[in-house]
Amino acid sequence: MALASSPSLSKLSLVLLFFLSLSSSHPSHDPTYPPQSHAERLVRSLNLYPKDSVNIIESDHAGHGFVPGEIVEKKFSFLGDSGPSVEDLGHHAGYYSLPHSISARMFYFFFESRISKDDPVVIWLTGGPGCGSEIALFYENGPFHIANNMSLTWNDYGWDQASNIIFVDQPTGTGFSYSSNDTDIRQDEAGVSNDLYDFLQEFFKAHLDFISNDFYIFGESYAGHYVPALASRVNQGNKQNQGLHINLKGFAIGNGLTNPAIQYQAYPDFALDKGVITKTEYETQGGESCADALDICENILYRILVFTDNINYYDIRKKCEGYLCYNFTNVEKLLNEQKVKRALGVRDDLEYDLCSLKVHAAMMQDWMRNLEVGIPALLEDGIKLLVYAGEEDLICNWLGNSRWVQAMQWSGQKGFEISPTVKFVVDGAEAGSLNSYGPLTFLKVHGAGHMVPMDQPKVALQMLTSWTGGKLNASSSASCDLMEPDRLNSPTTFEMPLEVLGHELQFSQDPNSKHLGTTVWDASLVFAKFLERNCRRGRFSPAKLKGKRVIELGAGCGVSGFGMALLGCNVIVTDQKEVLPLLGRNVERNISRVMQKNPESFGSIKVAELQWGDESHIKAVGPPFDYIIGTDVVYVEHLLEPLLQTILSLSGHRTTILLGYEIRSTSVHDKMLQMWKRYFDVKTVSKSKMDETFQHPSIELFIMGFKHSAECTENSGETTVEKVDVETVVDDKSSEGSVVAEEGTGLVEENVEDHDKSISQNAKLSEWEARRYGAMAARILRDIKIS
After folding, report:
1. Active site includes 64?
2. Model-level pTM?
3. What is the DSSP annotation of 102-169?
């Protein structure tokens, strides 16, 4: 796996990791060479690696004048006499003497904003590990580009147009950072993040004008390790009042390596989808079994490295040309000029190399660490996270990054998982796709590889300004358009007016809350308007529903439950404890509105806490119920079983279940149907029976009732489905197994898929039992005409 900002380091990492794994699992390799020797031989044979290993200056004077914790900084200009004065330009270069070292000095650039000193302060960390930040400075998002004649030109999309930006060479031994003792080279994120935190403390002391500015941490590639580690360290320092308070607002990872175990497993899927490997290669190299054997994933990647036609793993649209797959040699030429080093305050005898093999090797024990584990605590503290990825990168591809973001466990996980995907629009053109919920945002960037600011500079600058300005989310019309503009609900307003059954209702919502239940979701609107359309006659008429006991699961803002109460039902709306205050306010407000207009037809509605699977909560609401309803309660697989068990515990033999939800995951949907059909006949409501406006192709409504007469006792021993004779279930006598309905009340299409056509193959049903299935279906679909 290769993860540096420098493509050479990325390939090195891929090769090195491969050899480390193969050295133990493939004894046929030459035993005379240790794993690192194998890696170095291959890397050098492919001409992928820099010539010098690390900046360890062994002269007697290397540690001379070392003062721990000291910053020595100077202003400079790359523009000579042709540009603004050094004072006006606001460009700085300096060294920070690391206090927890023998003689380590950390080199950095600081470029003040071209627009305003009030812009956020951004620190940029390049990956590797062991690659200098100057790759980003001169080829991605710094103020300048290097022309072929070695002259510098202004970068029109440099991030100094929207921030005061710091570029740091770290860890020690990277770029212009150096020491006189190789024990100063760090080997883990604790050492790296402590050094950076110490640096930031002294930096802000030297630049007190910026201490109150918003502060953001950015990085790419292996900085997927550095960035969250530093964010956690800064947050810890702030909480414990360690030195100056740093105004940390967010951290961002671009095409990063953060959770290796998950990201490795995405390689074959991404490579197959992009045509990098064939289906046959995918299957023969492990493909679908990759999740069970990490070395298979590495083996696939190695085969890609060796046998593809010199593909550039940082941008699969391109070939790998030059000793770094990109031609970055001008950076080394420029920074090794003596006049440049003197202008920056760098030692004459210090050689600049893009990447350090020794630093890289020292950090190898850190490689497979999962740095995602510290992120949830930051999100809970309200610190924003942006994960962005160019879609053409293989090494740290968008798919692997998306998967670890989706798998991350935090209070907003459900909300993020079902968040709408929106277009990220720049200058009227779609530049990417975006998901966001609360403090978490994921952006896939079109037309970009591993280094988004290099491949899509305008898009990257817009991303920076939108995100730091709080506008990089689904509700920002300035930079984002909904992928599905016909969708009913964008959770951007805090008051949702809704006219239902002649009543003007008002539902409060708080989409910025950490809890999903505080947003009005689309399926609840579809459900309420479905009731309105079908209430004149049949099973959903007030005459049939008046006095029926109804419980709503995951009620959220209470829209669906209120619709049933308007039809005369006695409703209990339930949700988790944190959602109840908002739910209660909505109930009280709308009861008042209804009572002022037409109280006679209204049933009742009250609020109760119900955590799915909690026996005490279930007992407290007093099952069984005539109807169990829920909208958008199906979204993640691990909640399907608790939901099913709760429904069974709340049911009696005459209970009808009405569920509506948006199908966001076909795998979850299929799993749900598989579980439900063990107990219920499942029918899908026809779109023609829904409100003409309030419907959407991805939103389905289901009507379910218990299948058959066999007693079935659940795990709790409390839920029993009794035998019921067909005559007691169906008012309209009919031939056995038929469905009888009143004219004009059909809800299910004739050709709609019956999700329970087949009984489990292991089930042995008598003819009588098979006929009872039809009878129960008639009970469920009473008053329904199949049109």
Report:
1. no
2. 0.60
3. SS-EEEEEEE--SS-TTSPEEEEE--TTTB-THHHHHHTSSSEEE-TTS-EEE-TT-GGGTSEEEEEE
